[in-house]
Design a protein that fits this description.
- By secondary structure, the protein is mostly helical.
- Helices cover 77% and strands 0% of the residues.
């Protein structure tokens, strides 16, 4: 059942801007870093002398969380907005499917697109570093952390944004919350560890802890969101 629902969600998303957004995010980050390093090549190479890959990955890690937080809000809104726009909730739920299955399929669609973005970011960063002359042997663990940490730790944000987007017809509200969360996340160093928007950042230490926080909170929010969706009438 979940496979069929997920396939239906992905088919609907192919007709929207969701896939384009999933591709534009990593392309934008890599392009911005390409311009940054090309325009300031001598300065940045001297600044990161002996640690060129680490310098590039540090810059990528600074922008990827912002893109992830915005992407989570936009994708959740697109995934839920289809039924809101066409008033198709009753038709969908009249099918022999469970509400939990519908909610889970929408979450998996969002998470899958964000993982696609992370994969493209890893590939794009690899080629950018190689073309910049940093060598073709990057620190793999750091490259994967810079690319995938924001998504894995940010799954809690995905669950929350999906919950809001599904339950609220006016998508301006969850999108505004998503923008506010992005702004909050930019000041992560001043935030306590329980603030989930902080977890998408890649700290010098404790990265795995934030991923575990994100996965655990995502599961909890997913269950609560699905339970709320299961009790409430939708039009």
């Amino acid at each position: 059942m979940i496979g069929g629902l997920l396939g239906a969600e992905l088919l609907k998303l192919k007709r929207s801007m969701a896939v384009v957004l999933a591709v534009l995010g990593p392309v934008g980050v890599v392009s911005m870093e390409a311009v940054n390093f090309v325009l300031r090549y001598d300065y940045l190479v001297k600044q990161h002398e002996g640690r060129l890959w680490q310098g590039l990955l540090g810059n990528v890690s600074g922008f990827a969380p912002i893109v992830l937080l915005q992407g989570a809000a936009l994708l959740a809104s697109l995934v839920a907005g289809c039924e809101h726009r066409t008033h198709a909730w009753k038709q969908l739920l009249a099918l022999p499917v469970t509400r939990f299955g519908v909610f889970l399929a929408k979450f998996l669609a969002c998470a899958g697109l964000l993982l696609l973005s992370s994969s493209l970011l890893a590939v794009g960063t690899f080629f950018l570093g190689g073309l910049l002359g940093f060598g073709w042997h990057p620190p793999v663990r750091e490259l994967l952390a810079a690319s995938f940490h924001p998504t894995l730790a940010g799954l809690a944000v995905v669950s929350l944004q999906l919950w809001l987007s599904v339950m609220l017809r006016n998508q301006a509200v969850p999108l505004t919350i998503g923008i506010a969360g992005t702004i909050v996340g930019m000041f992560y160093y001043q935030l306590p560890d329980w603030v989930l928007w902080k977890w998408v950042t890649l700290p010098e230490s404790g990265g795995l802890r934030y991923i575990l926080f994100g996965l655990a909170a995502s599961a909890g929010l997913l269950v609560m969101g699905a339970a709320h969706f299961g009790r409430r009438d939708v039009n």
